[in-house]
Amino acid sequence: MTCRNAPSTLRHTRPIGPVRLRWGSSPRRTSVADVTLFDAAGTTESGIPDLPGAPLAVRMRPRTLDELVGQDHLLAPGSPLRRLVQDSSPPSSVILWGPPGTGKTTIAYLVARTSGRTFVEVSAVSAGVKEVREILEQAKRQLVLTGAQTVLFVDEVHRFSKAQQDVLLPAVENRVVILVAATTENPHFSVISPLLSRSLLLTLKPIEPDALRQLLRRATTDERGFGGAVTLDEEAEDHIVRLAGADARKALTILEAAADSVLDRTPASPDQGEGTTRGAGAVVGEGSVGGLEVGPDDGGQPMPEDAAAPEEDSGDSDAPSRK
Description:
The protein has twelve helices and ten strands. It is α/β, with parallel strands linked by helices. Strand 5, helix 5 and strand 6 form a beta-alpha-beta unit. The radius of gyration is 22 Å and the shape is elongated. Mean pLDDT is about 75; it is low at about 5-40, about 270-280 and about 295-323.
C-alpha cells in the first residue's frame, strides 16, 4: 500500500541547543548550523562545547561559580553574577570586561549550563549582520514554541560595528536573548550607549598569583586534568605563575605542555597494565618548564589608568551609562 504524496525520504527536525539536526537528505549548512550527528557530538544538550581531547584549559573550566578563581569581588551572596547564574527569574544581559584568561568565556558557559538555557556562541571577528539576525530569529522561535531562553555569547564584542550592535538592541530589550558579551577593551568607548545602558557591566580582575597556584594544583589532582599522575614542585609552580602573567588560560597551557613532556619521558610502572606508555607519579620540575612561553607576556599588566573601570555595580541600580 502506498500513500499518494508521501515523501520519498524520512525527514525530521528537532532542536539540539543552538543547532538543528536533520535526518533523511544530505545535511544543508546554514549560519544557524544544520548539523550531522558527528557535528552534534561536540556539544552538550545546551550547546556548550564538549569535545574529546580538548586542551587542559578547556577541560578545567569551572562547573560552578564556587570553582571560579580570582574574581571574589563578583561572587558575594546576592551579587549580580550570582543572580545571573543561579536565579530562576529572567536575568539581565551582561558585558564582561577584563584581561585575557580571567574567566569571561567560563562565566558565559556557567550562565547556560546551570540554568539549562540554550547556548549560542559567536565571534565578533567572523560573524556578520546576516548571521546575527538568523540567530536572533531562531532564538525568538524557540522562545515562542518552547519557552526556552537563549544565551547569546559574543566574544570580542568591541570588534562589532555599530550596525552589528544595533541589530542586538531589540532582542536584548525584549529579552529574546540573554546577551553575554566579552571584551578586553573599555566598553565605554567600544560599545554603543544604548546597548551598554541595557546591560550590566561586570569588571574582571587579573588573576592573582595565589589564585593561579590554586588552579594549577586543582589541575594536577582533578580527574578532568591529570588525576594525580603528575606532581608540580614549588619551583616549577612559581615559574609557571611568572610566565602566565595573571592569565589562567596561559598557566594551564604551560602546565599541560610541561606535564605531557614529563609523562612521555617517564616509564610506565609494571602495575599500570600492558600498553601503558605514560608513567604515573611524575614530577614536573622547573627544568621541565624552563624555556616554555605562550603568547605575549602581557596578561598580568594592569589596565591603563585612562581606561579605569567604574565602581562595581551592586545590582541595585541600572547598568552604568556610557561616559
